[in-house]
Amino acid sequence: MSNTLHGADQNSGKKGELVELEAHIKDKCWAQQQKHANIFKEAFTGSRNSSERFKERTLTEMASNKAELKPLNYLTEKAKTVFGPTPTIESAVPALGATGVTEHESNPILTKKVIGKEDVNIAELIQRLGSSDWVKQGQVFYGKSAPTCPFCQQKVIDGFEASLSSYFDETFEQDTKAIADMQNNYARDADALRARLKAVADAESKFMDMAAFVAEQSAIESRLATNTLLISNKRKEPSLPIQLESLAEMLAAAVKLIAEANTAVAAHNKIAQNITKERSDLTGQVWKYVLEVELKADLAAYVTKRAGLVAAITKLSGQIQEAGASKLTAGKDIKTLEKSATSIEPTVDGINALLKSFGFRSFALAKADDGPFYKLVRSNGSDAKESLSEGERSFVTFLYFYHLLKGSENESGMTADRVVVFDDPVSSLDSDVLFIVSSLIKSLFDHVRENKGNIKQIFILTHNVYFHKEVTYTSNHREDTKAGERTYWTVRKGDAGATVQQHLPNPIKTSYDLLWAELRREEKSPLTVQNTMRRILENYFKILGRNDFDKICDQFEGQQKAMCRSLFAWVNDGSHFSHDDAFYTFDQASIDVYVEIFKQVFVKANQEAHYDMMMAGPQ
Q1: Cα end-to-end distance, the chain, whole Å
Q2: pTM (predicted TM-score)
Q3: What's the sign of the alpha-carbon dihedral 441, 443, 447, 450?
Q4: Cα(404)–Cα(398) distance, rounded to whole angstroms?
Q5: What confidence tier does 358 reach under pLDDT thresholds 50, 70, 90?
Q6: Which spans in 290-430 are helix H?
Q7: Are 479 and 490 in contact (CB under 8 A)?
Q8: What is the rounded distance in angstroms from the CA atom of residue 573 to the CA atom of residue 569?
Q9: How far is the C-alpha of 423 from the C-alpha of 459, rounded, in Å?
Q10: Shortest CA distance to 597 belongs to which of 526, 537, 545, 548?
Q11: 480, 478, 530: which is closest to 505 by C-alpha?
């Protein structure tokens, strides 16, 4: 059965026939790609550079293509226009929207002469002299100098103050308040209009006549300034009638420019959307022609022959699987017999010897009572399985793995060359055990150097800087004298995934140096930069300098002070939480802003020399 399926040489048989069939149809399909590559290049996008991918695309299209069959000359002519540069969808120009600034131009208070009450005994003199505004301003001074006139310093007649109050009656006060309210409202609406004009200018749409719009914008802003001044004069002299300069014509011109631009944007986007659909339709039609005209006979023969080969392979594979299952059952029986005959005493003795040599007396390995298994016991003989700490569990697991490296992993005693990977072996271990683990790992290095035993290569992965220094330490600097014996690599996570970088010398000096090295990188990772800055600030200012973050921020002023407080809140947030992309976006601009504030913290704390030294890096 195996020879029928694979052939005597393991490269022929039914599977070999299937491989040849797939290669044959792949060549047929690729010939069509090369034939039409120049004209229909866009239709073949994604599969132009691989004959295998082109074959897979052909089979996919054969199963799903519902396009209309068109003649080759039609497809060729249409490709000249449809398969060209693709226009992109453009954003509409922001509209000015409704503005209330023009409504103020017809406010009747502007043309009204706001003066005092006419039936007061001093009203005739004030109106004849036209000094109502001057008298109103003088009333404020008289309130402080009464009963003496603030201007001539003579005592005024009895009842003069009452006449002034009567002259500037409640109606006068209401009118002056209306002028003040209008001034505030006009300023508000004018600011809103300026902001909308700026938004349109900042959009810099290529469909907008920017020169004309900027001219209208300048004219509108100039007229707003003029009207603002007129209203200010009206408030100072209520009796002065004024007429605001109209903005209606200018606004209409600006609105027209925006409308014309947006009409052009809409027309452009409609074309872009139609081209996208046209391109999709033409792509389907090209593939339909290839399937129904040029490859129809070849694909039909391929489908028929492949179905027969697959059926035969499936049947033969099932028969071979059944035979393999019988063989596996027999193998399990043999392994059961081997287990019953295999002693685990050497493993127990070897691990206990390691524990004893390193001074561990709190637990040991023993042979289980119910078969060839191990168990952990305390010094008094009690079961230690439930009372082991996480560090003890990790350590005994490491010792078991270490013991297996020197011996067999199966009952038959078979050994083979191996590559050993230690993935962060010191997690949850105290410093004493960390030193022991690093010493045991280093003891394997000499065996690899001298080509003794089955270990041919060792990889050590770790996040622990202290463990890294211990396991890489050597008194004779062997790694510097024999090229290629050791290599150092760092793995960094970023937005695009993990990257691996090789270092010629050992890159790890101290954990504090490593943090600054992260900040010196031109491309800072949004995933780690917050935690990096937090750890530097905490180590240098709080742990070493015993400085209070609030006191540091107090040395800033204005917005920089707020940004300093934001920095400390930001780095702490970045080190403890995972942001939800639905409401938080962290980009390069945010990193640049806070890195600058990070530097200013050192400047304000008179630690700029330390910042400059650490950012300069090793010399």
Answers
A1: 70
A2: 0.34
A3: positive
A4: 10
A5: low
A6: 296-341, 345-357, 390-405
A7: no
A8: 6
A9: 8
A10: 537
A11: 480
**Bridging pattern class, strands 418-423 and 455-461:** parallel
Distance CA 407, CA 345 (A): 13
Query: In the structure encoding, which two tokens stand for residue 252, read together?
Result: 């209409």
Q: How far apart are CA 176 and CA 109, in angstroms?
A: 9
Measuring CA to CA, which residue among 427, 434, 497 is closest to residue 462?
427
| Distances 312 to 4, 6, 22, 316, 328 between C-alpha atoms, Å | 10, 12, 16, 6, 24
> Could you tell me which residues come within 8 angstroms of residue 428 by beta carbon, excluding any fewer than 6 positions away?
390, 391, 394
Short-list 423, 426, 595, CA closest to 516: 595
- Residue 532: other Cβ atoms inside 10 A: 22
Tokens of 47: 């599969």
Segments in 37-153 forming alpha helices (H): 51-64, 72-82, 123-129, 132-145
Phi, psi of 566 (to 5 degrees): -65, -35
The H-or-E segment that residue 264 falls in is helix 248-289
SS3 assignment for 453-507: CCEEEEEEECCCHHHHHHHHCCCCCHHHHCCCCCCEEEEEEECCEEEEEEECCCC
Q: What angle (nearest 5°) sits at the alpha carbon of residue 260, between those of residues 254 and 265?
A: 125
Helices 170-203 and 248-289: crossing angle in degrees, nearest 10, is: 30
Angular region, 86: left φ>0, alpha ψ -120 to 50, beta rest = beta
Q: Which amino acid is at 540?
A: Y
Omega before 618 within 30 of 0, i.e. cis: no
pLDDT band at 584 (very low <50, low <70, confident <90, very high): very low
Coil, helix or strand at residue 207? coil
Mean pLDDT comparison of 18-27, 273-282, 384-393, 577-586, highest-scoring range: 18-27
- Angle ∠(279,285,286) on CA atoms, nearest 5: 90
Burial classification of residue 264, based on how many CB atoms lie within 10 Å of its CB (0-12 exposed, 13-18 middle, 19 or more buried): middle
Torsion of CA 259, 265, 271, 275, to 10 degrees: -160
Amino acid at 87: P
Name the phi and psi angles at 142, rounded to 5: -65, -30
Instruction: Give the span between the Cα atoms of 443 and 115, in whole angstroms.
Output: 104
Are 529 and 518 a contacting pair, CB within 8 Å?
A: yes
Query: What is the C-alpha to C-alpha distance for residues 318 and 309, in angstroms, rounded to an integer?
Result: 14
Residue 47 three-state SS: coil
pLDDT tens readout for residues 530-578? 778 878 887 777 655 566 777 888 888 777 777 777 777 755 554 444 4
Residue type, 389: S
> What is the Cα–Cα distance from 231 to 110, expressed in whole angstroms?
8
